[in-house]
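Example record

One chain of 102 residues, shown exactly as stored in the release files.
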Amino acid sequence: MPPLLFALVAGLVLGVVDVLLMMPLALPDKLRAMLGAFLSRFAIGFLIPLVRLPLSPWLAGGLVGLLISLPDAVITKSYVPILVGGLVGGMLVGWASDRWVA
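Predicted structure tokens for this chain:
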């Protein structure tokens, strides 16, 4: 699959999964929180297939996911779910991009 197409699909999938996980939460401004989470996770999924780091793909993905998740975690003070989600999601996208990106 071409890298740009895979990046778009990975970003959409990661963003939608994160929004679905947030659906049951009670949040003061739920729409804004879900939009922010979608955009952050979309960025993770979109960038990982397009970034080349001198690391294994899953490790590079985890690093990108962690770095993009840090601002959200600091702002919300919800470190563990946001950082773990970014790390694991990034690792999965890195692994998948290594397997399916031409």
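Notes: The chain has a mean pLDDT of 96.
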